[in-house]
Write a structure and sequence with these properties.
Bound molecules: ligand SAJ
Structural class: alpha/beta
Largest sheet: 6 strands, parallel
Number of strands: 16
Keywords: NAD, Oxidoreductase
Enzyme class: oxidoreductase
Organism: Korarchaeum cryptofilum (strain OPF8)
Distance between the termini: 64 Å
Helix content: 40-55%
CATH superfamily of the largest domain: NAD(P)-binding Rossmann-like Domain
Shape: elongated
Family: Belongs to the UDP-glucose/GDP-mannose dehydrogenase family.
EC number: 1.1.1.336
């Protein structure tokens, strides 16, 4: 069978490579011609995903063929859609998805299978079936269609694509069975079959669940800050209870999934008569975190009386050890600090991005003369920072070290001469 995958990003690329590794010939299509050129030269944008790079080098040109030419999709037996369905200006942007379904409908072989991996707002699958119908194909007869949402976590994409459980949503048994056979080629987790609406809701609920739970941890952190306690100690204790599992509070919740999926669920529900509250408030609370810590830095710098002081932000990715900066809390923190007139110096060991502030390749250079240092991503390297050396390089006393990811030991930081505060513990 000839397989094509539309979209060669975080999910489409590793998926294409796993299918190639299972013995299929795979066309990896993307509209981004620069991306395709890079892939054709064996270069990925997913630097922290070593397994993706290894598979690319293994199958490039033999079973995996990146292409920017939509005509190469023609004659496919299977087309998988893995394009982004982002939130843009407060709404669900489904343009890329609709374009992809149009392409897939025109290129698929009769009797072929179209699988949608992109996250769908509830009821969107029905719209996609109508689009396929408009192209003159009867779903379930001329072409088989299913929804098989991804749930892989950046940082370990290949392992998660292989070992996580999968849900297949389909309207007819043949579409479901064909999809199950396809995914069974490389998925080692359970594969569950259900109807498309259940699959659509389940995917969004998983991320809403995580977002709400992180919001709970963030709320507890704010309570501890207000009461003068330490959330780390509180969390350690409560998590010893057999039925409590409090997540880790932090400077914000980023990434492309948790920041939009809960809202997609909430918006579509509102359109259908029930307006969720908990999910919305959780999202607002999580979104407020970077601004809250920007306020804190601002307060400190005013107290220090450091005019347009220098703030060093360490880490721009939405979480540690990945190169993904989508919806990163660091962005909102940096924007806010710059808006308030501070000079922001940025360092990240993995990705050269600084959201308009000045980027420094070397940690030491970024720290130099800083009045405040904020740790915004939990990169492994930051955990072993030489705090004494950093304090020597930073500005005149007092220098604030704000640990947004709870990775630094308070005593060590204070022994090194910093004024140390962290999420959920402002006592110094
Ligand atoms: N975070 C916290 N505290 C925590 C855990 C995470 O503040 O205890 C923050 C992280 O720093 C990050 C954000 O939340 O900024 C999201 O990170 P994450 O590791 O929770 O999740 P993602 O976005 O990398 O991947 C999620 C996963 N979903 C769930 O765990 C339910 C992944 O399995 C999804 O499939 C993926 O979204 C997706 O593609 O939807």
């Amino acid at each position: 069978a000839r397989i094509s995958v539309i979209g060669q990003g975080y999910i489409g690329l590793p998926l294409s490579l796993l299918l190639a590794d299972s013995g299929f010939n795979v066309i990896g299509y993307d509209v981004d011609s620069k991306l395709i050129e890079e892939l054709s030269n064996g270069i990925t944008r997913l630097g922290s995903e070593k397994k993706v790079r290894d598979l690319l080098l293994k199958h490039l040109g033999s079973r995996y063929f990146p292409s920017n030419d939509w005509r190469r999709l023609k004659g496919s037996d299977v087309i998988i859609i893995a394009v982004p369905t982002p939130r843009v200006n407060g709404t669900m942007e489904l343009g890329m998805l609709m374009e992809a379904i149009g392409l897939a409908s025109s290129a698929i072989n009769r009797g072929g299978l179209i699988v949608v991996e992109s996250t769908l707002p509830p009821k969107t699958f029905d719209t996609l079936l109508i689009e396929i119908g408009k192209a003159g194909l009867r779903p379930g007869e001329d072409v088989f269609v299913s929804y098989c949402p991804e749930r892989a976590m950046p940082g370990k994409l290949i392992d998660e694509l292989i070992f996580n459980y999968r849900v297949i949503g389909a309207k007819d048994p043949a579409s479901a069975e064909l999809s199950k056979i396809l995914y069974g080629c490389f998925v080692k987790g359970e594969i569950e079959i259900t109807d498309p609406l259940t699959a659509e809701i389940a995917k969004l609920v998983e991320n809403a669940y995580r977002d709400v739970n992180i919001a709970f941890a963030n709320e507890v952190a704010r309570i501890c800050e207000a009461l003068g306690s330490d959330v780390r100690k509180v969390r350690e204790l409560v998590n010893r209870h057999p039925r409590v599992n409090m997540l880790l509070p932090g400077i914000g919740v980023g990434g492309s999934c948790l920041t939009k999926d809960p809202l997609f669920l909430s918006w579509v529900s509102s359109e259908n008569g029930y307006s969720p509250e908990l999910i919305n408030i959780a999202r607002e609370l999580n979104e407020s975190m970077p601004i809250h810590y920007a306020n804190l830095v601002d307060d400190f710098l005013r107290w220090k009386n450091s005019g347009s002081g220098i703030v060093c932000v360490l880490g721009v990715t939405y979480k540690g050890d990945v190169e993904d900066t989508r919806e990163s809390p660091a962005k909102y923190l940096i924007d806010e600090l710059m808006r308030r007139g501070y000079r922001v110096k940025v360092h990240d060991p993995i990705v050269k991005e600084s959201f308009g502030a000045r980027f420094y390749d070397k940690l030491e250079e970024a720290v130099e003369d800083a009045d405040a240092i904020v740790i915004a991503s939990d990169h492994s390297g930051f955990k072993e920072m030489d705090l004494k050396r950093m304090r020597e390089l930073a500005g005149r006393d007092p220098v604030l070290l704000l640990d947004g990811r709870l990775i630094i030991d308070k005593e060590k930081a204070e022994a090194s001469g910093f004024v140390y505060v962290s999420v959920g513990n402002l006592s110094s």
